Amino acid sequence: MMQPVSAQQVEIGLMLGGSNYSGDLSNEYLVPKETHFSASLFGRYNINKRWAVKGFMGYGQISGDDKNFGSYRNLVRNLNFTSDIYEFSVHGEYNFRKNNINSISARPFLPYAFGGIGVFSFNPKTVYDGKTYELQPLGTEGQGTTSLNELKKYDLTTLCIPIGLGFRQKIGDNFFIGVEGGVRFTTTNYLDDVGGVYADPQIVEAAYGGVAGILSDRSIELILPNGNSEYLNKRGDARSVRKYLNTDMYFMAGITLSYVIRSKGMACPQF
């Protein structure tokens, strides 16, 4: 007797979870309370039992705040930010166990690793005096000012390299459920608007206005023991004090659910 076999080559799915980041305003660690909601859509093409390729479209939010830390350096820098992340990437996946893509009844457990390349957009913002300001247009490190015109404003869309691990379990003829987490190495040190040295706030103010000058060095908001406020950082002082990597990174992790789109294959004998 001959019966058609359904080839499980294509899946569509979603991932719901969290996002976080590592950079200057996290002191290069992950700060759990700065984790935010993330959501992603993906499509997977199973090339064979070991390899698959996945298109990924994700949204997340990242944030950081010097107030999370008690050091004097964090105190006098006094910066914070939030940013939405929009990612479009392609991942190659390797299954550590074979995925029997031609079997409807098989219920494989599939741990896998992935790596890829993508583009993402970000836009760091902060709140000052009750209003939200986009930081990149304000040139907070002197970018684009007359005195520092060799410094260009950083791009808000750039490359990322996703790398991570996951596992998924088939729970019916048509569905996989799983967990996935990955780091995104980026090509920018400005996810948090911090990547260089302090400019003179007066230079920034002359180019972009009074708020820009204050946001370039927020130590001016601190009340000193004498009851006054003043800029505590000097032009040329390090605003970014990276020790390990010269670029920021962000993370996405969550629970995945995917649906198998079947395509009819050639008939196989049944005994």
DSSP E strands, number: 10
Main beta-sheet strand count, sense and barrel state: 8 strands, antiparallel, barrel
Share of residues in helices = under 10%
Question: Could you say what the CATH topology is called?
Answer: Porin
What's the alpha carbon Rg, rounded to whole Å?
24 Å
Protein model, in words:
The protein has 271 residues and is mainly β. The chain has one domain: Porin (Beta Barrel). Helices cover 8% and strands 48% of the residues. Strands 1-2-3-4-5-8-9-10 form an 8-stranded antiparallel beta barrel. A two-stranded antiparallel ribbon has the order 6-7. The longest helix has 8 residues, at 201-208.
Write the layout of secondary structure elements.
Blueprint: E1 2-22, E2 36-46, E3 51-65, H1 72-77, E4 80-95, E5 109-121, E6 125-128, E7 131-134, E8 157-170, E9 175-186, H2 201-208, H3 210-216, E10 249-269
Antiparallel strand pairs: 1-2, 1-10, 2-3, 3-4, 4-5, 5-8, 6-7, 8-9, 9-10
Helix pairs in contact: 2-3
